[in-house]
Specification:
With 228 residues, the protein is mainly β. The chain has one helix at residues 3-23, and strands spanning 34-35, 41-44, 48-52, 55-56, 64-70, 76-81, 84-89, 93-103, 115-122, 129-133, 139-140, 144-150, 153-159, 165-177, 180-191, 200-201, 204-205, 213-216, 222-226. The chain folds into 2 domains: 31-122, Immunoglobulin-like (Sandwich), CATH 2.60.40.1080; 129-226, no CATH class. The protein is built from 1 helix and 19 strands.
């Protein structure tokens, strides 16, 4: 065999060796992504809970697809929106949520080690006991409610299980967002202490009528002081 033929054979052998070397992972330099641990969650049946997922990856340019599964979908289901999970409680019980992140490398170590956390779903709290029309001097215990009337219609005042005084009702009002008038509907407002006539909430003027007053008592009950 002449020298030229020997060199050609050597080149072919080197190419084959390189391909075998690569197939064995010698050039697989992708970094496996990982997910930070997620603490256990508790929610009521019928409620949603948002959970952020934090992915770390030494390959800064990698993008990731997050997947999540619930062991018992009759208790709670989970959906994924980019790096956020939404857990929805369906029935009292407990389930395990498993989360993984996969990078866009297409290599064998592209998926993180699964992270799991427990979700406990409690039965929904009972509806407040309706005590009728709110009148001055009426005292409500946690789990009780009364109704008063404002210009927009009926408002329900109730005391929740956290001893907060809350009001709810379909009360749209107009506020400004970046200088543009926008009609907003507030679902409810809760107060930890007294409800006063000069209060405002974070969205602007109180839409539940500023003439309604109530005071929190030391035992956690609330007493109506004024109604519209």
């Amino acid at each position: 065999m002449d020298r030229k033929g020997a060199i050609s054979i050597l080149r072919v052998a080197m190419l084959v060796a390189s391909l075998v070397f690569m197939s064995c992972g010698a050039f697989d330099d992708n970094s496996q992504p990982s997910i930070e641990s997620i603490t256990d969650k508790t929610l009521n049946a019928g409620d949603d809970r948002s959970v952020n997922v934090y992915v770390t990856d030494a390959d800064a340019d990698d993008t990731h697809t997050i997947r999540a599964f619930s062991d018992d979908t009759s208790v709670a289901t989970v959906s994924v929106d980019e790096d956020s999970l939404t857990i929805t409680g369906h029935a009292a019980g407990m389930t395990t949520i498993e989360v993984t992140a996969t990078d866009n490398s297409g290599q064998d170590n592209d998926t993180s080690i699964p992270v799991t956390f427990q979700v406990t779903v409690n039965a929904p709290p009972p509806l407040p006991i309706d005590k009728g029309i709110c009148v001055v001097g009426m005292t409500l215990q946690p789990g009780e409610s009364c109704t008063y009337f404002a210009d927009q219609g009926p408002i329900t005042f109730y005391v929740n299980q956290d001893n907060q005084g809350c009001r709810t009702g379909e009360q749209p009002y107009t506020t400004e967002i970046f200088g543009v008038p926008v009609e907003v509907t507030v679902d409810f407002i809760c107060a930890d202490e007294d409800i006063r006539g000069d209060e405002v909430n974070i969205r602007g003027n109180n839409p539940y009528d500023t003439n309604f007053h109530a005071t929190k008592n030391p035992d956690g009950s609330w007493t109506v002081k004024n109604v519209p």
